Amino acid sequence: MKLFLTTLLCVVSMCCFSQNEGYVIIEQDQRIELLIQRQREIHVADSTIDGYRIQIFMESGNDAVEHANLVIEEFKLKYPEMPIYLVFGQPYYRLRVGDFRTRLEAENVFQTLSKDYKKAFITSDRIQLPYNVFCDPNLGDEELYDDLDSIPNDTIDTIINTW
What we know:
Blueprint: H1 2-17, H2 30-45, E1 48-59, H3 64-78, E2 84-89, E3 92-100, H4 103-116, E4 121-128, H5 141-149, H6 153-162
Antiparallel strand pairs: 1-3, 1-4, 2-3
């Protein structure tokens, strides 16, 4: 009798708590869409945040721009995936690389760059925001959700786990 009741209890609990495949309907407050729209407008108006870059070159004088362009070409050959910015702050031309949110990220890359650029150092700067599909004003809601469907599940898991 105990075995029968235990088995019956297990079967009933499995039926009650098992997950069924199907669709999820999300009901959200209408104000959330307004917040998303405001975030899109802010992103378009100012797409920079406080962060860090690595300065690899600083020079003044008549030939500073030509020297900077040579360093840019050399850098792009060695590190084609890393963004490089030519900044003028009187009287110096500066080359700064990367868009790092934290100093730790900048430190990791600095270890590599300091071998090639002995005078390199980390500096705080306004950096470009990483691309955020939710803030793209050119995408409509249908395109947004179609675009999200094309993202592999392992990428979504990685994004969720980093939060």
